[in-house]
C-alpha cells in the first residue's frame, strides 16, 4: 500500500466497482449503539450487488465477532463472523508477534478481548498477582476500579501494555459516551506508561483486515477523521467519509492533511455512486458539477456559487444547506488555501447541512 493523494479523488464508476473490499467502520457508520444508521442496510446491499466485499473493522473490542455479526444481521445487514475484524484481534496479533504461544496475559475488557487472546494461544491471568507478561486493555461497559487497578499493578511490575484503541469517546444512540481511550488514560495516569495501540488510527488493523478479506484494492469507510480517516492515510488506503457519525462537514473542511478523506458522501449509499472531484479554475475557484467555491481575503472567507446563484455563507449558528458537490468544492478550496499558507479557524468556516441529490 502506498501514499494516497492529499486531495479529493475522482471515480467515474461507483466506488464499489473500483475497490474490491470496503473496510467498514461500525459505530456511527452502520449503527449508533443499538440503533441502525439511516440507509446503512441499503448502502451495503447495493455495494455488495456491485461485487464489493465487506470487512467490518471496529475499534470496539468488547464483543466477539459472531456477536457483532448477529447485530448487523438483525439491523438488515447480513454478515458472517469472518467479515468482522476487531481491535481485540489486532491487539492479539501484535502480542503474538512478540511473545511465545502460551504466554500469560492479563485481559482488561470484555468477552471479545478474551476470545481473541485465547484464539492466539495465550493463557489468561485473572490478576496481577499471577505475574502476567502483558496487559491488554479493551473497552467494556462493565470495567471498574478493580480491573483498572489490577492492570496498573501488572504494568508497574513490568508487564507490556497494549490497548485495543485510544478512542476517547464512543458514539451511542444517546450521544457520545466514555470510550476506551479515556479508560486507558486512567491506567496511564497511574503508571506513567503509554500503551501500544492496536486499533485505528494505527495502520496494522487495516492491513490485517485487507489480508483477511483477500482484498487487493481496499477502501476505508468511516465517520471519524482522527481514527478512521487518519488510519486510512497511515495505511496508504483511500478513505470515504460519511456524515452519519462524529466528524461533520465543517470538520472535513478543516481537516489536517494526515486526516483528509479521499471521497465524501452523506451516508453509505455513496459506495454505489460515482464521485466527481473538484478541479481548479481561474481566480482561485474550484468547480464540481454546477457548484464552484473559493477562499478569498486576508481574513479568509468562502464564496460558493451554484450555477448563477451565490449561496449566502454567513458564519453563524444556523446551518447552511449545500449540495454534495458544493461541499466538495468548499473542501477542495479550503485544503488548497491551507496548503498554500492560509490559516483557517472554526469561526471562519460555516456550519453546513449537506443534502445529497436522490
From TrEMBL:
InterPro entries: HAD-like_sf, HAD-SF_hydro_IIA, HAD_sf. It comes from the Bacteria. Pfam families: Hydrolase_6, Hydrolase_like. This is HAD hydrolase-like protein.
Amino acid at each position: 500500500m502506498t501514499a494516497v493523494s492529499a486531495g479529493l479523488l475522482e471515480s467515474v464508476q461507483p466506488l464499489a466497482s473500483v475497490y474490491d473490499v470496503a473496510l467498514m467502520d461500525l459505530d456511527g457508520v452502520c449503527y449508533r449503539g443499538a440503533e441502525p444508521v439511516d440507509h446503512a442496510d441499503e448502502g451495503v446491499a447495493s455495494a455488495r450487488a456491485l461485487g464489493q466485499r465487506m470487512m467490518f473493522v471496529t475499534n470496539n473490542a468488547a464483543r466477539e465477532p459472531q456477536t457483532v455479526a448477529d447485530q448487523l444481521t438483525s439491523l438488515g445487514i447480513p454478515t458472517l463472523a469472518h467479515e468482522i475484524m476487531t481491535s481485540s484481534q489486532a491487539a492479539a496479533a501484535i502480542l503474538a508477534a512478540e511473545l511465545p504461544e502460551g504466554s500469560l496475559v492479563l485481559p482488561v475488557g470484555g468477552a471479545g478481548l478474551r476470545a481473541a487472546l485465547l484464539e492466539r494461544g495465550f493463557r489468561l491471568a485473572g490478576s496481577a498477582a499471577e505475574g502476567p507478561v502483558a496487559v491488554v486493555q479493551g473497552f467494556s461497559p462493565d470495567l471498574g476500579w478493580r480491573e483498572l487497578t489490577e492492570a496498573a499493578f501488572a504494568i508497574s511490575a513490568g508487564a507490556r501494555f497494549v490497548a485495543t484503541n485510544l478512542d476517547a469517546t464512543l458514539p451511542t444512540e444517546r450521544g457520545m459516551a466514555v470510550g476506551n481511550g479515556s479508560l486507558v488514560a486512567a491506567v496511564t495516569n497511574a503508571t506513567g506508561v503509554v500503551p501500544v495501540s492496536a486499533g485505528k488510527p494505527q495502520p496494522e488493523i487495516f492491513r490485517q483486515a485487507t489480508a483477511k478479506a483477500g482484498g487487493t484494492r481496499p477502501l476505508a469507510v468511516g465517520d471519524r477523521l482522527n481514527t478512521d480517516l487518519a488510519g486510512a492515510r497511515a495505511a496508504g488506503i483511500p478513505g470515504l467519509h460519511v456524515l452519519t457519525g462524529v466528524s461533520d462537514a465543517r470538520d472535513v473542511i478543516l481537516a489536517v492533511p494526515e486526516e483528509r478523506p479521499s471521497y465524501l458522501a452523506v451516508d453509505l449509499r455513496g459506495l454505489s455512486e460515482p464521485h466527481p472531484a473538484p478541479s481548479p479554475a481561474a481566480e482561485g475557484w474550484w468547480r464540481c458539477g454546477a457548484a464552484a467555491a473559493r477562499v478569498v481575503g486576508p481574513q479568509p472567507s468562502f464564496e460558493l456559487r451554484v450555477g448563477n446563484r451565490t449561496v449566502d455563507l454567513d458564519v453563524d449558528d444556523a446551518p447552511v444547506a449545500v449540495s454534495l458537490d458544493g461541499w466538495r468544492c468548499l473542501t477542495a478550496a479550503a485544503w488548497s488555501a491551507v496548503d498554500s499558507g492560509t490559516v483557517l479557524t472554526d469561526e471562519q468556516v460555516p456550519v453546513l447541512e449537506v443534502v445529497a441529490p436522490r
